[in-house]
Amino acid sequence: xxxxxxxELIVDSEHKTAPTEDEGYPYIRTPNIGRGRLILxxxxxxxxxxxxxxxxxxxxxxxxxxxxxxAPVGNVAIVTDGLKPCLGxxxxxxxxDEDKIYPQYLVYLLLGDEIQERFHAVSTGSTVPHLNMSxxxxxxxxxxxxxxxQQKIASILSAFDDLIENNTRRIAILExxxxxxxREWFVHYRYPGHEKDELVDxxxxxxxxxxxxxxxxxxxxxxxxxxKAFKPKHWQDEGLPxxxxxxxxxxxxxxTSYYHGRDIDKKYYxxxxxxxxxxxxxxxxxxxxxxxxLLNQHIFNVSPKVSYLTKDYLYxxxxxxxxxxxxxxxxxxxxxxxxSALDEVHIALxxxxxxxxxxxxxxxxxxxxxxxxxxxxRLKETRDLLLPKLISGKIDTKQx
Length: 400
What we know:
The structure is a single chain. With about 400 residues, the protein is α+β, with helices and mostly antiparallel strands. A 4-stranded antiparallel beta sheet has the order 1-7-4-5. Strands 11-18-15-16 form a 4-stranded antiparallel beta sheet. Helix 5 (about 145-185) packs across helix 8 (about 310-325). It has 10 helices and 21 strands.
């Protein structure tokens, strides 16, 4: 059978970009389509007027699937109850016929190795491969298991996705708590004992700061080691993953390149807990939790110069200062932070006793975040291991 035979509707998005706003309906672009679930962190939004205009082809509803036609090809996620998204460019809405196939099972069927390989095989385009609508509608499927088996497979895999979402939310809450503590202490200067400290003009962009605090540039308090400019000969299929900005934001994918790294200087290696600063194209601060890897150019590996400072502290300091760094970008087509910005952006460095109080308050939160990240990675690996085996029938659901 073909995909169009077990669906009520397969329609692509408008072939233009909707105007986005800070509030409104989620505007789903291809980066917002994960493996099974929509990624709504930092999702763009559209107004009521735009929503009505951009959903003329179809209004997404509960249990609809949204498929990425490109970047990355073949990612698919389900629309959950209560969500009212709008299709962004290069996405496709698939409405399952629920009398013929269980919607959540169809999600995992399309994410299985067999279908993903076919998606990539038929995708066209020399620079950015994409799926044609005719290939999506005409996608041939093997015989489906019973509806009961479909539901069981979907429930097993959905349980993992639920745990992944729960861990992701907990991480977000803990990170927000830590950021609030940092801002309270080191941006608003309401740390324990602040009442007796005098504020004076910092003489730089920071404004008034506590009198006894030192004004330092980021280049004075931290080392910024740029990644290696890997060449095409390094883009291989085995070895250590090469971390580019895409891997920082979305994790590893079929587009991730690997290299054995035996001839690579150790300064280009990264591991769990390393602080990474993407300074070109998509600017951002990241703590790395995906194991040993190699760092590509356009990303700094940041480490403290000051003996008592930690990478966690620098993470929050850089995150707070990111807007200031953004004012010091260069480039017309691909913006990047100028190297001189590290000398021009400043921080008010607290005395050691204030810093120690902060570290004792923040360390338990950071340890919990680290544990949740590691648990999250294990859940994703287990789900990705089970998915193709359940879909292909290599694991009998009767044994589960």
